[in-house]
Amino acid sequence: MPTAAALRSEWLKIMSMRSVVGSLAAVFVVTLCITVLVSAAVGRSEARHAGFDPVFGAFHAVNFGQIAAIAFGTLVVSAEYANGALRTSLAAVPDRSRFYAAKMALVAGPVLAVGLVTGFVSFLAGQAFMGEYAMGLGHPGVLRACVGSAVYLALMALLAAGLTTLFRSGVAVLSLLIPFVLIVSFVLGDVAEGIAAYLPDRAGQLVIRARPTGSLGPWTGLAVTAGWAATAVLAGRWALLRRDA
Amino acid sequence: MNSIDVQELTKVYGTTRAVDRLTFSVRPGRVTGFLGPNGAGKSTTMRLVLGLDRPTSGSATVAGRRYADAEEPLRRVGALLDAHAAHGARTARDHLRVLAASNRISVRRVDQVLEESGLAAVAGRRVRTFSLGMRQRLGVAAALLGDPPVVMLDEPSNGLDPEGIIWIRELMTRLAREGRTVLVSSHLMNETATFADHLVVLGRGRLLADAPLREFLDARSRPRVRLRTTAPDRLRSALARSGFALEPGDDGRWTVDGAKAEAIGTTAAREGIPILELSDEQPSLEQAYLDLTAGEAPFASTSPTTRQEV
């Protein structure tokens, strides 16, 4: 089946590049390390504050893990735009819809898998430092956050991959998305109202909150992020299918 | 038949007609040299054949089908377009494994083409550490991966050392002898003359010539004879009676324009004039090509004698 062959080829592409494998591993390492460090250092003192969201506290490091996920999505695609490697790829798989679908599947799949492991492992590791404030997996919202954070990471990687295809440049996308998720989000803080609530990272991160406030719920927020990702992926597909390689 | 057929092919980029109503066929069993100045449309034509660029009008097919319609195209057409089109962070072997996987070609075949292209010893090195010559070999290895009946190589001898040039020449000749269709673009005229059986010449995106190499040369070069003699004066007057002029050439030899060796030899023998050396001058592809493409090169310098494609 030719689609299976295209998927296998894309998988080998990922596994044969250190930087790409490294960015995927970084999703796990960064999220886990920051969760453990923050929980160990300020976890219990933070938990004492009124209005503290214990679920968001446990999954806050996804904010940093997503940078690695964005880098992964970008690198997987931008490798094709270095030195016209895309021509070699499209000569091997001339059906561009199939080529692009295989590529996007291998952006989303590995991030989702690594994201699930990251979600569970870093939650459990972080809670080990929380003393009497520790939550179990059965705590309201925790299981949802474990799975939701993985979906969120995969969607952010897809958003980056779609934009990289559209702009044919990893540098452009990284310098757009990383300041966006780091600065714009922090500047907006906890403002969850108006247009800001519908930004891809703000909306999607509702899934890692115990009690989302505002008009969006945890899953509808994630659906908004999915909408952003789908738009970027479709825009990339449109560009790839109509451009000369 | 596994021929490449280009029909009324036109590609317009903005205001530039890169390829202009081009029609020609590349037949199996012989090496077809694809010639033309920089910007003549050779690489564009190859990209159009591979479906990488979309033609403005016209069509390009391989064995009667569009390249993009093939399920496993590397088994039908092998192409070297750009030696740099391999990601530098991958090893040579990984680069080929990725391509092989997409067309369900075995890993054993990957090792085979690495061996065949002389890269077996460096297969585990990252492509970014490769010289241009090694990248060319890798590109050729990729083209051979699917054991395709049609092979298209864009400037394969670029950057190759003398040993590599002999290798690629023998490879192309062998591929053609095996009955495959071989299209090779090159700027090196004298090099092309050593392996091409047939020529397709482009200028400004249009077809200038489509002919067997021999015929192309004969049609575009005046015969000329070079000789040495101990009696130039007697020979001169004997030739003058047949309407030929004896001109002093370099290094003590003489030349006769517009004549074949048979005619001069017969005349000299009849007159009893001693001839020490007598040969037809081999027409050079370079000169024939330059005569044909004069005025067709967008980047030509003003002095035609110094014009050289690199």
Question: What does this entry look like structurally?
Answer:
By secondary structure, chain A is mainly α. Chain A has one domain. Chain A contains 10 helices and no strands. In chain A, helix 6 (96-127) runs antiparallel to helix 10 (218-242). Chain A is elongated, with a radius of gyration of 19 Å. The model of chain A has no long low-confidence stretch (mean pLDDT 91). Chain B is α/β, with parallel strands linked by helices and 310 residues long. Chain B folds into 2 domains: 4-212, Rossmann fold (3-Layer(aba) Sandwich); 222-280, Alpha-Beta Plaits, CATH 3.30.70. Chain B has helices at residues 42-49, 92-102, 107-116, 132-144, 162-177, 189-195, 213-220, 232-242, 261-271, 285-293; strands at 4-13, 16-26, 30-35, 57-62, 77-80, 150-154, 181-185, 198-203, 206-212, 224-229, 246-248, 254-257, 275-280. In chain B, the strands form 3 sheets. In chain B, strands 5-6-7-3-8-9 form a 6-stranded mixed β-sheet, with helices on both faces. A 4-stranded antiparallel β-sheet of chain B has the order 11-12-10-13. The longest helix of chain B is centred in the middle third of the chain and has 16 residues, at 162-177. Classes of the chains: A mainly alpha (245), B alpha/beta (310). Chain A binds chain B through residues 2, 5-6, 8-9, 12-13, 16-19, 79, 82-85, 87-95, 244-245, and chain B through 47, 50-54, 67-74, 79, 81-82, 84-91, 94-95, 97-99, 101-104, 142.
In short:
The complex is a heterodimer of chains A (245) and B (310). With 245 residues, chain A is an all-alpha fold. Chain A has one domain (2-242).
Order of helices and strands of chain A: HHHHHHHHHH
Average pLDDT of chain B, rounded to a whole number, is: 89
Q: What is the strand tally of chain B?
A: 13
Q: Separation of termini of chain B?
A: 34 Å
Rg result of chain B: 23 Å
Order of helices and strands of chain B: EEEHEEHHHEHEHEEHEHEEHEH
Report the biggest beta sheet of chain A as strand number plus sense, adding barrel if it closes. Answer: none
Task: Write down the domain tally of chain B.
Answer: 2
User: What is the mean pLDDT of chain A?
Assistant: 91
**Cα-to-Cα separation, first versus last residue of chain A:** 25 Å
Envelope shape of chain B: elongated
